[in-house]
What we know:
Blueprint: E1 2-6, H1 11-22, E2 26-31, E3 44-48, H2 54-61, E4 66-69, H3 79-94, E5 98-102, H4 116-126, H5 128-143, E6 147-153, E7 155-157, E8 166-167, E9 179-181, H6 182-191, E10 204-206
Parallel strand pairs: 1-2, 1-4, 2-3, 4-5, 5-6, 6-10, 7-9
Antiparallel strand pairs: 8-10
Amino acid sequence: MRLLIFGSTGSIGRQLVKQALEQGHIVTAFVRDATKVNIKHNNLQIAQGDVMDPEAVRKAVQGHEAVLCSLGAGRKGTVRSEGTRNIINAMEQAGIRRFICQSSLGVGDSRGNLSIFWKYIMFGLLLRPAYADHASQENYVRQSHLDWTIVRPGAFTDGERTGQYRHGFSNTDKTTKLKISRADVADFMLKQLTDDTYLHKAPGLSY
């Protein structure tokens, strides 16, 4: 497929680009700084721009079959939500339907999956702006007319891609490890391109 990846120089995005190319997809990496792309491949194209610029996003989405989003802004807010809103608007204008968006376990109705530490210390205090940004991001996705899937991973680790993880567990399940490797997050996101199980759903993802 012809894929466009936003957040492609972030820790999840780099894995998405790498694994998508390995699977034979034609990939466009949307980046603010092209020098941060350290992969060279015949099927890789670079689109340089700012996701906060609607016109740059509109130009980038043209000609693609699906879009994956793993925008990040550390502990700060607004880039995930506002950038995603620009992506959604551009996709709807271009008639591109399939959208896979990475959020976070604990957002929305998955709050019940969190431990007390993650619920009140991490998301309640330290990561509050990022949590609110993801919540707004999810709202934009849900209100869209796209064929969307929101992926909610636990805390990221640097482990290898295993393909062995839990997904789609109930929102009251507290038995997961609340962590997953970045490589496995990308693995799951890419699998959604050919699987409609989680169409218009927001599965949790964790070991």
